[in-house]
Amino acid sequence: MYLIGICVEQEAFEGKIEYIQVMDEDGNVDESLFPKELKDQDIVGMFKYMLFARANDAKTLSLQRQGRAVTYAPLLGEEATQIGSAYAMRKQDIFVPNFRQHGVFLMRGLPMEWMYLYWRGYEEQLPKNVNGEAIIVPVATQMPHAAGMAYAQKYMRKDSAVIAYVGDGGTSEGDFYEALNFAGVWKAPMVAIIENNQWAISLPREKQSASKTLAQKAIAAGIDGVQVDGNDVIAVYKATKEAIEKSKDGPMLIECITYRLGMHTTADDPTKYRPDEEVEKWKKRDPLIRVRNYLVKKGLWNDQIEKEVAEQQAKEIDAAVERAEQFKEDPKSMFTNVYSFVPQTLQEELDEAEKNNYWQGGGK
Ligand SMILES: Cc1ncc(C[n+]2csc(CCOP(=O)(O)OP(=O)(O)O)c2C)c(N)n1
Ligand SMILES: [Mg+2]
Q1: How far apart are CA 30 and CA 295, in angstroms?
Q2: Into which CATH architecture does domain 18-329 fall?
Q3: Distance of CA 94 to the CA centre of its chain
Q4: CB distance 169 to ligand 1 below 6 Å
Q5: What is the rounded (10 degree) CA torsion for 152, 156, 158, 160?
Q6: Tens-digit pLDDT profile for residues 183-226
Q7: How is the chain split into domains, by residue range?
Q8: pTM, to two decimals
Q9: Catalytic residue of the set 54, 100, 102, 264
Q10: 264-302 pLDDT, tens per residue?
């Protein structure tokens, strides 16, 4: 008897990742890609939020340098990724940040003093209307939570998506893969946004992963992935809006290519590991420049408007800082706000603290 081996060459899989840019570095737009629903006032509105996010960032950095805020992770350079994606969210969508999405918080209407309180060490749950999670520092741990929350939306038949942010560094964590895998299998309405700012503290993107794009990590999880110019607020808006619309049929991964123009956090000095030429190159791609160019060309913006907007925003920021600095925190909230009810073990600790007057420096 003879066995004849037949070897047939077949392609088991082929994948492709698209790249979207709508507005180039000079502010010219590709009309065929421009979202029809966006009116002039939308672009002006987004630009104002980008300016607001930048002004707020500069203020918090300055407060930290004066000893009036704790360690802070600036967003400088990443405004388009944050404002574009937040502008696309609907009220009922839930957002899950890491530790750098201050622009998203602003756009979601978080009272500004809340942010300054956080940077003074007062960690509270967010007001319900913001519809999001508070800042999450352990890298990528927010992703499985987001996938679970997305599944819960589907289970409860709610028309809401969960938009979760993660850094380029975060995409190397097991949590990231597990979340995509779970969301893919259960077709959970999750939109995962990679804010790829090219650095994870001192580790550059090319050492982070041998993967040509981070968006293609979606393919292994059986979900769609797309790469977007993350310094193009219109492209980010468009990709996020489409992903949210499609999320009722399953998750999506969006990689936003942006750049961290500042330091990782106020505890970091990037000049120790990053060439100045690289930063200079990205400064020319500043996400604010191209929107301003676009609006100026359309006669919708000028220096006078910008001056008035900056003055108004500075006033709002200063007032919020003042409210935060005068806020009298209730130390009991560290017990009462951890769970939806106070469990017995925490209640015992709270009773002990009250009995011994720990708030006033009492106790042993
Ligand atoms: C699980 C875990 N490991 C390490 C750290 C320390 N850490 C904080 S931010 C960071 C880098 C994150 O880089 P990336 O995901 O690209 O986000 P980016 O800071 O660039 O926004 C690291 C390693 C942490 N917070 N959590
Ligand atoms: Mg990064």
Answers
A1: 15
A2: 3-Layer(aba) Sandwich (3.40)
A3: 12
A4: yes
A5: 0
A6: 999 999 999 999 999 999 999 999 999 999 999 999 999 999 99
A7: 18-329, 330-364
A8: 0.94
A9: 264
A10: 999 999 999 999 999 999 999 999 999 999 999 999 999
